[in-house]
């Protein structure tokens, strides 16, 4: 087993956004790269529309499947509210990658709660870290021709911070994604890497 | 399945449930049976992929347990899996097989849910092991789940006992690296049923004869557990010794990297000698366990002073932070846990509760009942609604949330009908409607309905028939016409059951036809007789049926908010404008919003564009 600095990754999103498949791909990439890994998805009763959280832990030897609050090295959020909801998990100086997408819960529409604005979100993360990256993941995925490739695109983003070689990522994607949509997912992955080459650093 | 080759063995990233399934498969099971229930469901789903064993969904956990008993009596290794509350349903046959013993191995997976992620309670099923006087195995990761399964079957056969294999959510639903060392070997030495009245016919005379065997078995198991290789002492710093099992071990190892550990893979009966030796060898012994002080109380009863629940919470799921904070408060670690960068999320963030999906066949019926039963009164708490709704276990329980406000009670599988009957007997004075899903009705609703007929009830029972067990991820059931293996199967017709029981007022309606829903529900509510309404509509998350999405004509829309009252996640209000998110809307196969819009402002996207 290779020696690697511990990486605790928290992936958050809304049910139906494909976060679980993304965490499967990440888990498999880490396995192929020869690291120890534990991964757990906290779904609650999430059908579509609920909060979904995946804990992914990579290292030489991983014990606990859950990451302790305040220990997360990389928070990758598929939706902005689901980024700020889990902000206390991010360690000081950790990395936050946030898809620039708002999916207001029903209570916002019914007028009983308010969706936080971008300034508020940024202000909260600024207290924790300087490494906050907003990514236009959903619009980039739509431009590619399939909004559902958001999950591989976000994996492209996170790949820029992890010691896993690109061919291994692509192998992991190939294992998990059916052949007919594999090519567009490879492109989404590259797009994700590209997105963080021109990051909008907050 | 992810595979890498490391030497001679195969290393896979398996969930606990996948590891349990693979371990049982390699242990040579020929029968696997279960009723779906989070977090246990994937065990049977994984076993159903194999052609060389019988893997089936049972009608409920009690039936599953009985099938397991019969299969084990007949000499085939058998796995029965269920969630914690499923074992309550199966407790009667479970207690019976605890006394008869088995023949071939019988392993019962109980998947508990600390933290109540997807359950109605947080019961600690470890108590079932001493209650039934049977052994209990607890893995702490996927590797152990795989490895321990072989032991569980051997123990079952060697000691003539069912074995509880206890998982928790964080074991069942965590993936970790698993070296798969075995291959499938099906034992045949016990095959065949041999008549044995004293063992299998539990007449009082035989049960009394059998009773001492159970005590004798416990004595033998108590000796065995001292030698069980997964009960293990690892000496470290002898100032502190930690006794733990299951996933708690993983949190404890992170918080106390240098302490001495007694890790228990078999938690009933306990290795008392080993525990004494361990506690003697350390200055201070503590127990770290999730939920009840099960280990702690048993060790205290041995006269050994251990602590644990004095500082480790007995409620909810543990994690490293909880254990670390508790350890600091108890003076077990010197260093104050590092404070988080920020300690709290901003107040008043909108919650995101799970919702009924876009296109859910349950939305229209709850919307209609909300209006007919004046359920919206619940939102301002001004007055009780006209109709009381007793609920059950399934996706439709989510209708309890605003705006549908569709539920007054939810207890356990099948309880909706009995609870409604009780309210009626108590003279509650309002119409009572019981909601139950198609799978839940077959699981344990039928007997309640028999009672309703027999005792002259006037309630209305609504069977929400989406032709799947949706909440747990679309498993088949006896009414779907498909088997666990996805092969065609005979289908049990709920309408015929209802009629056969003797209900006279039975109607079957389309879940997406709001006009029919309204008139049928109205007449059922007004009817002084017992009535059953079967509301049929496919689960869109299962069928993935999609058509042209709906859109709102912004000029015609007055933002009256009527459509928001369906609780459809596709209908959102953004900057005072109501919009339908086209990627979420399943289109005119549902069209519930289109039917209720007072301004007729909702139409499928294309025709709206033409207009």
| Quaternary class | heterodimer
Query: How many extended strands of chain B?
Result: 23
Biggest beta sheet attributes of chain B: 7 strands, mixed
Radius of gyration of CA atoms of chain A, rounded to a whole number: 16 Å
Shape of chain A: globular
User: Any guess at the CATH architecture of chain A?
Assistant: 3-Layer(aba) Sandwich
Count of alpha/pi helices of chain A: 8
Approximately how much beta-strand content do the residues of chain B carry? Answer: 15-25%
CATH-defined architecture of the largest domain in chain B: 3-Layer(aba) Sandwich
Major sheet characteristics of chain A: 7 strands, mixed
Overall description:
The complex is a heterodimer of chains A (about 200) and B (about 600). With about 200 residues, chain A is of the alpha/beta class. Chain A has one domain: Pyruvate-ferredoxin Oxidoreductase, domain 3, CATH 3.40.920.10. Helix content of chain A is about 35%, strand content about 25%. Chain A is built from eight helices and seven strands. In chain A, helix 1 crosses helix 6. The mean pLDDT of chain A is about 90. Chain B contains 23 helices and 23 strands. A seven-stranded mixed beta sheet of chain B has the order 4-3-5-6-8-7-13, sandwiched between helices. A five-stranded parallel beta sheet of chain B has the order 15-16-17-19-18, sandwiched between helices. In chain B, strands 10-12-11-14 form a four-stranded mixed beta sheet, with helices on both faces. The longest helix of chain B has 22 residues. Chain B starts with a strand and ends with a helix. The N terminus of chain B is likely disordered. Chains A and B meet through helix 1, strand 2, helix 2, strand 5 and helix 3 of A and strand 9, helix 11, helix 14 and strand 21 of B. Strand 2 of chain A pairs antiparallel with strand 9 of chain B, so a sheet runs across the interface.
Lay out the secondary structure.
The complex is a heterodimer of chains A (about 200) and B (about 600).
Chain A: E1 7-14, H1 19-32, E2 36-42, E3 51-59, E4 72-77, H2 80-84, E5 90-99, H3 106-109, H4 118-126, E6 131-135, H5 137-144, H6 150-159, H7 166-176, H8 182-195, E7 200-201
Parallel strand pairs in A: 1-4, 4-5, 5-6
Antiparallel strand pairs in A: 1-3, 2-3, 6-7
Chain B: E1 4-6, E2 9-15, H1 16-26, E3 31-34, H2 41-47, E4 54-57, H3 61-73, E5 78-83, H4 84-89, H5 91-100, E6 106-112, H6 128-132, E7 136-137, H7 142-159, E8 163-168, H8 169-172, E9 174-180, H9 197-200, H10 204-225, E10 232-234, E11 237-245, H11 248-255, E12 259-264, E13 266-268, H12 272-281, E14 284-288, H13 294-300, H14 320-329, H15 361-372, H16 377-380, E15 387-390, H17 415-425, E16 431-437, H18 438-454, E17 460-465, H19 494-501, E18 505-510, H20 514-526, E19 531-536, H21 540-543, E20 550-552, E21 571-574, E22 577-580, H22 592-596, E23 602-604, H23 605-610
Helix pairs in contact in B: 1-2, 1-7, 3-5, 11-14, 15-20, 17-18, 18-19
């Amino acid at each position: 087993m290779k020696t690697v600095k511990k990486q605790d990754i928290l992936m958050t999103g809304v049910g139906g956004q494909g976060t679980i498949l993304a965490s499967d791909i990440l888990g498999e990439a880490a396995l192929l790269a020869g690291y120890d890994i534990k991964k757990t998805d906290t779904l609650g009763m999430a059908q579509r529309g609920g909060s979904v959280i995946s804990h992914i832990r990579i290292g030489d030897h991983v014990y606990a499947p859950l990451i302790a609050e305040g220990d997360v090295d990389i928070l990758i959020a598929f939706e902005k509210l689901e980024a700020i909801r889990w902000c206390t998990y991010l360690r000081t100086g950790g990395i936050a990658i946030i898809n620039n997408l708002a999916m207001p819960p029903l209570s916002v529409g019914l007028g009983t709660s308010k969706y936080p604005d971008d300034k508020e979100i940024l202000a909260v993360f600024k207290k924790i870290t300087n490494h906050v990256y907003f990514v236009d993941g959903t619009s980039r995925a739509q431009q590619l021709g399939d909004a559902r490739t958001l999950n591989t695109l976000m994996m492209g983003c996170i790949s820029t911070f992890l010691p896993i070689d690109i061919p291994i990522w692509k192998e992991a994607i190939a294992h998990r994604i059916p052949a007919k949509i594999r090519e567009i997912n490879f492109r989404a992955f590259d797009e994700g890497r590209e997105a963080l080459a021109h990051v909008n650093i907050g | 399945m992810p595979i890498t080759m490391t030497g001679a063995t195969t290393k896979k990233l398996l969930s606990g449930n996948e590891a349990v399934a693979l371990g049982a498969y390699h242990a040579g099971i020929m029968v696997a049976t279960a009723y779906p229930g989070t977090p246990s469901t994937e065990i049977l789903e994984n076993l159903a992929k194999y052609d060389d064993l019988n893997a089936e969904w049972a009608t409920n956990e009690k039936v599953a347990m009985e099938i397991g008993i019969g299969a084990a009596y007949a000499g085939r290794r058998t796995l029965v899996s269920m969630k914690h509350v499923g074992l309550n349903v199966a407790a009667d046959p479970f207690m019976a097989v605890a006394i008869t013993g088995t023949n071939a191995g019988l392993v019962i997976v109980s998947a508990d849910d600390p933290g109540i992620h997807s359950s109605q309670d947080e019961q600690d099923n470890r108590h079932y092991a001493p209650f039934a006087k049977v052994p209990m195995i607890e893995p702490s990761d996927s590797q152990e789940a795989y490895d321990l399964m072989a032991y569980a079957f051997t123990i079952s056969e060697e000691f003539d006992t069912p074995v509880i294999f206890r998982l928790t959510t964080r074991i069942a639903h965590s993936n970790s690296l698993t070296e798969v060392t075995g291959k499938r070997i099906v034992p045949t030495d016990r095959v065949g049923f041999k008549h044995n009245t004293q063992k299998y016919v539990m007449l009082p005379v035989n049960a009394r004869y059998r009773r001492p065997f159970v005590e004798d078995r416990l004595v033998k198991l108590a000796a065995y557990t001292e030698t069980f290789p997964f009960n293990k002492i690892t000496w470290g710093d002898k100032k502190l010794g930690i006794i733990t099992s299951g996933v708690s071990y993983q949190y404890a190892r992170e918080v106390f990297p240098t302490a001495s550990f007694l890790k228990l893979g078999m938690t009933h009966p306990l290795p008392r000698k080993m525990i004494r030796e361990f506690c003697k060898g350390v200055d201070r012994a503590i127990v770290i366990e999730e939920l009840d002080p099960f280990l702690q109380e048993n060790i205290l009863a041995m006269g050994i002073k251990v602590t644990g629940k004095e500082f480790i919470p007995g409620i909810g799921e543990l994690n490293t932070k909880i254990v670390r904070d508790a350890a600091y408060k108890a003076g077990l670690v010197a260093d104050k846990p590092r404070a988080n960068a920020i300690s709290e999320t901003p107040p008043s963030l909108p919650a995101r509760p799970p919702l009924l999906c876009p296109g859910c066949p349950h939305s229209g019926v709850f919307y209609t009942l909300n209006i007919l039963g004046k359920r919206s009164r619940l939102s301002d708490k001004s007055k009780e609604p006209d109709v009381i709704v007793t609920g059950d276990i399934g996706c439709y329980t989510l209708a309890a949330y605003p705006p549908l406000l569709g539920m007054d009670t939810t207890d356990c599988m099948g309880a909706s009908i009995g609870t409604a009957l009780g309210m009626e007997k108590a003279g509650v004075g309002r119409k009572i409607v019981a909601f139950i899903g198609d799978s839940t009705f077959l699981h344990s609703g039928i007997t309640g309905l028999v009672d309703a007929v027999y005792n002259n009830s006037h309630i209305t029972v609504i069977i929400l028939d989406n032709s799947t067990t949706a909440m747990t991820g679309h498993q088949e059931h006896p009414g779907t016409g498909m088997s666990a293996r996805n092969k065609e199967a005979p289908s049990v017709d709920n309408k015929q059951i209802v009629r056969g029981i003797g209900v006279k007022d039975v109607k079957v309606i389309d879940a997406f036809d709001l006009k029919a829903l309204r008139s049928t529900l109205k007449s059922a509510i007004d009817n002084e007789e017992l009535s059953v309404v079967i509301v049929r509509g496919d689960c869109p998350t299962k069928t993935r049926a999609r058509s042209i999405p709906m859109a709102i004509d912004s000029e015609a829309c007055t933002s009256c908010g009527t459509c928001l009252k369906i609780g459809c996640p596709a209908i959102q209000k953004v900057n005072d404008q109501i919009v339908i998110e086209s990627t979420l809307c399943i289109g005119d196969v549902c069209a519930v919003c289109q039917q209720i819009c007072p301004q007729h402002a909702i139409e499928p996207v294309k025709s709206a564009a033409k207009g």
